[in-house]
Design a protein that fits this description.
mainly alpha, 3 strands
Length: 137
């Protein structure tokens, strides 16, 4: 492979956007020798490998797609939390009503149990338990 096919140059601005850094950071990297660059007509040109450049672009695109997924998952989680809070509140309300009903039924049935005879009591208890309680207006 020829060297011209694998090596490419980018402007500082292009390289900075490729690696998600600022122009100033790239200039510091050039000054410190962390990035290979040569001086061109319009400032520095960063020397990069074309394969690595294409891989970096692919990775950046994948990261952008993942950020979109994370945002949609965050919205979904938020709506699920809201729904969960609503259902927990509703469940607590129903449980408290259920406990009140059972306490009322027990108080009503206790005197009946003492008065009634055993064979009749079982049938009557089933009837009473199956009927909903009537509330006074």
């Amino acid at each position: 492979m020829k060297e011209s096919q694998t090596i490419n140059t980018l402007s500082v601005k292009e390289y900075a956007s490729l690696i998600n850094k600022s122009d100033k950071t790239v200039y510091k990297m050039i000054k410190e020798g962390l990035v290979g660059a040569k001086k061109g007509m319009n400032g520095y040109e960063v020397v990069v490998d074309t394969y690595l450049t294409s891989r970096c672009k692919d990775i950046n695109k994948s990261l952008f797609d993942m950020q979109g997924l994370i945002q949609s998952f965050t919205k979904e989680i938020s709506s699920l939390k809201t729904a969960t809070a609503y259902f927990e509140k509703r469940l607590n309300e129903l449980e408290s009503k259920s406990l009140k009903k059972s306490v009322v039924k027990k108080k009503l049935l206790k005197p009946l149990k003492k008065v009634m005879k055993k064979p009749i009591r079982k049938k009557l208890l089933k009837k009473v338990m199956s009927k909903p309680l009537k509330r006074g207006n």
